[in-house]
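Hi P.,

Sorry for the delay on this. The queue was packed all week, but I finally got your sequence through. Input first:
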Amino acid sequence: MTENAFILTLSSKDQPGIVAAVTTELADAGANIAESAQFWDRQSDRFFLRIAFTAPAGTRRDALERQLAPVVSRFDLKTTITDLSRVPRIVLMVSKFDHALLHLLYQIRVGWLRAEIVAIVSNHEDSRRTAEYEGVPFHHWPVTRETKADQEERLLTLVRESDADLVVLARYMQVLSDNLSRRLSGKIINIHHSFLPSFKGAKPYHQAHERGVKLIGATAHYVTADLDEGPIIEQETERVTHAMSPDDLVAVGRDVESRVLARAVKMHLEQRVMINGHRTVVFQ
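Then the structure:
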């Protein structure tokens, strides 16, 4: 018999009985739990739970929500139920450097990342040929001080009309407004090198080379109004040596950035990331 697969995530003030109550309701709905992870953050006294489960064929998300409603009300839970029959939809944004974008497209093509790219947006023309090869709509929207607000409204319209679940800044080198960051809160991920705040601006890898750094890294995080300070999803570092040139460091950085962003996107789409104030809870 074909089954439907779902993921339930929830957060609340920590209190006894949450797991027992939730799993009892799922069992009464005929669900079979495939994966479960939980975390109590003692600092904030918040409880986080992620349950992946299957349910009898024909089970709908709204029926599960009704089943869980008494428990949600009793414990004041903040819940999300994701129906895994729907393929997540992504808008990719890129400027000139396309290594992170190409890596995401490849991981989707080979099936490691389950998603559909519904649009590629860029302030440059460089990635148009890639979009055409992939059969993805390409939007060239140059950004100036005069056009920035209009461009961001066009992006919000695109997200709404394409029913996109996530916006990914795959080395999109434009600062987003506070308004856009708030309106897409929790739905937009950025990648950058981990030299911040030491090496800002142009050619950070060259700056790092001049200072003789021994570690190169990358950080993927949710976008907030605080530039490059949103809740961190994933990070990685790699050792470098004095014998490497600035171009060698750039090459290492491109590789690390691509991997870190892909993992962050995958964890987000699999509902493994839960925002906890300025931090995240990530269920690996």
